[in-house]
Task: structure prediction
Amino acid sequence: MAIRMNGREVAAFHRQRISRETMEYVQRTGRRPCLAVVLVGTDPASVSYVTSKRKACDEMGFDHRDYELPEETDEKNLLDLIDRLNADADVDGILVQLPTPAQIDDDKVILAIDPQKDVDGLGPVNAGLSLMGHDGFVSCTPKGILALMDYYGIQTDGRRVCIIGRSNLVGKPLAALLMQKGRDATVTVCNTHTRDLGAITRESDIIIVAAGHVGTLTADMVSEGAVVIDVGTNRIEDATRERGWRLVGDCDYDEVRRKASYITPVPGGVGPMTITMLMDNTLIAARRRSGEKS
Result:
């Protein structure tokens, strides 16, 4: 039976570290790191994510600027706000909650954010730095996955890693990070067009599934002792719950855990790590902008 990788426990460990380092930064500089959070519209999931990020700022001693724009906000007004935040010396990091409404081009939003304040690590400058193995802001979910693996002592050197999913948010940046010197993994990135996916996953020491579909990874696709990291977050109906639904990942957790050596649950696995790494990136941004080494 697999060891359950407790993301809440690991996130708490890093939040204590970040809080301590933030206090030391404030003592040195006389200012707190500041994250600007921009939300366009009232999508319930986005509102929930933004609320969690604000709570994390308060918990770890950060300042935060909150901008809640109406659903009908046009692209120009949002880009103008980003320009102002780029120029604001008191703002260290900028987070625009994605996706934005249909009238706004998310790619333009990402491109508009100053790379030095791109604490989500989604812009091309930071993505390129990660690909080349240089210091930049690492995308928060991949960074959280690596922190989770490090906490549990999971080695990647020489191991075969299969990533199911090729998104700009998880799959692509995670592949780039795992192939760098120091991680030294042999990485295969799969997608919905991959033929005989199970043949690849069964040969993999570590499987990271981020496809966004329930049941993508089943027990017959996993070798004994493999490490399984489930990034999926899917809402399914559940009449036994008061709210009528529950969250599940992309893998068949109950069956896969009987074969895996380590596995992340959903919820409570990768999810708590993402916001924690956003705070870590914001502290790094503040240090860099203060002339300190991060």
User: Anything to note?
Assistant: The chain is about 40% helix and 15% strand. The CA atoms of residues 54 and 266 lie 22 Å apart. The longest helix spans residues 7-29. The first strand starts at residue 3 and ends at 4.
